[in-house]
Amino acid sequence: MFIPKKYGQSKIDKCPFCQRHATAMNSQKVPVCQSHKDEVIDNLRCVCGLELETMHGKFGTFFSCVKCGNINMKKALEFNALKPKMHNENFSQRAKTQSNKEMTVRSDDPRYFD
Ligand SMILES: [Zn+2]
Ligand SMILES: [Zn+2]
Questions:
Q1: What is the pLDDT of residues 45-88, one digit of tens each?
Q2: Of the chain's two ends, which shows fewer C-beta atoms within 10 Å, N or C?
Q3: Which long-range contacts (CB under 8 A, 24 or more apart) does 107-112 make?
Q4: Considering every ligand atom, which ligand is closest to the CA of 95?
């Protein structure tokens, strides 16, 4: 039996805030993880240094630079490191429990001061 491969449907989106698997969508229709579904992507900067304007088209969210024109989200995220603004208590609690279990924190470890 011939089963056609469905390209484009097997790809897993990553949450732009934490790089975990995206299983939800934020208000901008951007794939995000459950922890960051209330976050929005804004205040991104273009490669040229200008601030990008967030646009909403029929194919989803994209960005616009007055100098460089439209920039898709994938590209915009390549040169912008996103930091979630909201602190998710559950998530950080779980991360802490996990790291306690999986590694011994040494005082000279830079992660110790996180
Ligand atoms: Zn996330
Ligand atoms: Zn630009």
A1: 999 999 999 888 887 789 999 999 999 988 898 888 777 776 55
A2: N
A3: none
A4: 1
